[in-house]
Amino acid sequence: MRQSQLFLNTLREVPAEADVASHQLMLRAGLVRQLTAGVYSYLPLGYRVLNKVESIVREEINETGAQEVLLPTIQPEDLWIRSGRTYDYGDDMFRFKDRHDRASILGPTHEEVVTMLVHNEVKSYRQLPQVLYQIQTKFRDEARPRAGLLRGREFRMKDAYSFETDVEALDKTYRAMYDAYCRIFERIGVKYKAVEADAGAIGGKGGTHEFMVLSDAGEDTIAVCTSCEYAANLEKASTNPLPVPDTTTELSPETVPTPGTKSIEDLTSYLGAEPAQIIKVVVYEADGQAVAVCLRGDHQVNEVKLKNVLGASHVELASAQVVLEKTGCQVGFVPPTVDIPVLFDRDIVTVTDGVMASREQDTHDIHVVPGRDFEVKRVEDLRDVADGDTCMYCKAPLKFQRGIEVGHVFKLGDKYSKAFNATYLDEAGKAQTILMGCYGLGTSRLLPAIIEQCHDDEGIIWPIAVAPFHVHIIPVSVKDEEQMGTASDLYRRLTAAGIEVLLDDRNERPGVKFKDSDLLGLPVRLTVGRKIVDGQVELKTRKNGQVDVLSVEEAYEAILRIVK
Ligand code: ATP
Ligand code: MG
Question: What Å distances lie between residue 285 and 234, 314, 346, 363, CA to CA?
């Protein structure tokens, strides 16, 4: 491609709306443009990268034996009522009425549609197993679209669905998909980690793993064992219960004034206590019902664990008004003896000389011992793992990393096949429910995820497998016949050899061209400048900045070697 003809407009300034590096770079390098919140146009360079990512995904998923289909974007809402997920997805779903007033949605995912399809098509065990997949645009009206393609409201996903007759077959497909994902991320050239995850709104009781591209820009926190293979999303991560000290305070509880202490910090500095001594009570609304969680002041409630323990569809922090209504106490002054259901985190019993709210505002009780001074009834693991926690398998310390979730594999079991009565006749002619798995991979999210890992201050550093072009040829002066002649000649030869070349044939100052070239981040840059009078050109590797001065032929050969 000749750059003078390319639909590309690079930006010098960092766009004000972008605070994440990949988002800034995608805009500056002219890969995408925003139309409206979370909705983007892919420009030629961005679309080339997306297509390369999707080709790698397609090749590896095909390799597993899965078959590609294309399912509809428009779906009747009835299907979602049937699976019970209209409520789970809530406002994340784009809903509309068609001209006949039928409630419809734009597909955020396709479990319902594909299960219905299989219900209609599959009759006998002989037709199973089957794995169907598609690569398609998905729609989710995300509450907080963020960082360009990282969290869009319209985005691209590869979603696969497997249908099996037994658990062993499901395990096998799950493993095959897991391995295919590993190959995909290795081929692309990103550092990733597969972590244990929570099943969330997709549901299912079997295993589930998320694939995380490690990056500080990620919204997810992962707990990783410093010794063994254990890694889990913070939502799901467990640890060993903390050791319970042998002795507790012998002092009796005493009520003391604590005026204006709204937070744990206020309270600890006012009383000169440690956060781990505070007996904290946090009030939630779970499907509209008030419930309190009692845990140590230095621990955080894990809302996913809470939701799972309660079997609730939706859990949110209660507002100050709801707290007052349901408990008669102000936020920050709710004791664990309150008259709504209270769940206790299992580590609350490690408090040996604690501080808890007394019912009166602006006072707390000190020298409180859980179990001694109030009943500890419903004990569960309800908190996030934290610094100092240890691995459940090998007891080594856990450490924390940030990640971008780029893929998710689930064993669904019969959640959807039951709802849609997707059955088959077994060898004995008896109807059995099909087992399912589902396997999502965010192809558009991968673009910013790759850039987060692969960039420097000057711009993007594309891994060769997904770079929009392999080589950037830059004649320093397009007016110089020899320079332009050699550049054009190499452009033609390399293109003919199957190398993807961008030729910067613009009549621009060299500084402008080099700056743009660093920003676009093609893996190899070939500069044809004044040295051409000695038959020499310059080959620069974007990744490590290495520059080699070579003859034209050597440069041609080197490029073939690097790309092939
Ligand atoms: P998240 O927790 O980030 O919202 P999710 O759990 O809702 O993700 P899934 O429903 O499992 O995601 O979708 C499969 C894959 O689709 C995800 O692993 C992710 O890569 C991608 N994905 C999900 N939501 C978005 C989005 N809003 N924008 C871009 N990619 C997305
Ligand atoms: Mg989501």
Answer: 22, 8, 21, 25
Q: Are 183 and 442 in contact (CB under 8 A)?
A: no
Is residue 498 within 8 Å of residue 489, measured between CB atoms?
A: no
Q: Please provide residue 59's backbone torsions phi and psi, each rounded to the nearest 5 degrees.
A: -60, -45
For a ligand 1 pocket test, name from 405, 410, 411, 446 the mutation site with the most ligand atoms within 8 angstroms of its C-beta: 405
- Give me the number of domains the chain comprises: 3
- Start-to-end CA distance of the chain, whole Å, equals 19
DSSP one-letter code for 252: P
Report the alpha-carbon distance of residue 331 to residue 493 in Å, rounded: 72
Distance 368 CA to ligand 2 centre (A): 41
Identify whether 456 is part of a domain.
Answer: no
Q: CA-CA distance, 513 to 539, in Å (whole number)?
A: 15
Among protein residues, the one whose CA lies closest to atom 3 of ligand 1: 405
By the 8 A CB rule, do 294 and 306 touch? Answer: no
Q: Are residues 31 and 179 in the same domain?
A: yes
Task: Determine, yes or no, domain membership for 390.
Answer: no
**Phi, psi (deg, nearest 5) at residue 202:** -70, -35
Indicate the DSSP class of residue 20.
S
Ligand 2 centroid distance, CA of 211 (Å): 14
> Ligand 1: which atom is nearest the Cα of residue 440?
14
pLDDT tens, residue by residue, 146-183: 999 999 999 999 999 999 999 999 999 999 999 999 99
Residue 283 has pLDDT above 90, yes or no: yes
**What pTM was computed for the model?**
0.90
136 C-alpha to ligand 1 centroid (Å): 13
